[in-house]
Amino acid sequence: MARLDLDGKEIAPITICLIGGAGFIGSHLCELLMAHTHHSAIVIDVSSDKITHLLEKSCSWSNRIEFHKINIKNDSRLETLIKSSDLTINLAAICTPADYNTRPLDTIYSNFLDAIPVVKYCTESNKRLIHFSTCEVYGKTIGSFLPADHSLRQDPNFYILKEDVSPCIFGPLEKQRWSYACAKQMIERLIYAEGDEHGLKFTIVRPFNWIGPRMDFIPGIDGPTEGVPRVLACFSNNLLRGEPLKLVDGGKSQRTFCYIKDAIEAVLLMIVILHLLCFCLCYK
């Protein structure tokens, strides 16, 4: 259904540039955009496997979605595609533990250095950016960082994460898994600085363990033979092979999970609200 302004006139659809838009999150977001909006999508990724069904000519949405096989690290087309869009959503990242535990250099490049041009082009062309970061930028909670026998370790207040208050506690340099969180925090700080100094309009999203179809890989089945997937994929891997479930920290470690369909509905609301807000500002 078309969205109308206060005078009953249709609000024109927009073009959204989805960087990394053919991955786990991006493929679900593309489906939702096609099914529930009139917006168009320019999808940038290194593979289209997870959105092939949307690109087929027989699909009724194929005229509203286009795919560009681009590695944003070294492709000059990125600038043109961002500038030709109304909104950019950056989902591109190396974000699986199997990768960032063993490839810290690639992790830093992917999550920080490679994202710099995206931020730059959005600033220069005055395009809003929705950037996907991670809950890992918070690092450890104060409670988990305290010594096991510390009197405050049992205080629940020290396990609460508050976006604009909580300190970011990372591990030492030799623990290279923290390269992911550190790189994500650095690009957040760059985005914030661009907004503060040059007027970049942005929204930062910090997912907490989104799960669902098309996520991660099960070693030897839909991904590399070697490697450790995330916890849910790890459980599936063990179940398929008839192996005991491997519990993190003996089962004491806690996680918050959100189903991808619920999470993507929240992202769609961000897009809709931003679209309506921008229209109202222009209308005034």
UniProtKB/TrEMBL annotation:
The chain crosses the membrane at residues 263-283. Gene3D superfamilies: NAD(P)-binding Rossmann-like Domain. It holds the Pfam family Epimerase. Signal peptide: none annotated. Keywords: Membrane, Transmembrane, Transmembrane helix. Coiled coil: none annotated. Residues 16-271 form the NAD-dependent epimerase/dehydratase domain. InterPro entries: Epimerase_deHydtase, Lipid_A_modif_metabolic_enz, NAD(P)-bd_dom_sf. PANTHER family: BIFUNCTIONAL POLYMYXIN RESISTANCE PROTEIN ARNA (PTHR43245), UDP-GLUCURONATE DECARBOXYLASE-RELATED (PTHR43245:SF21). This is NAD-dependent epimerase/dehydratase domain-containing protein. It comes from Vitis rotundifolia.
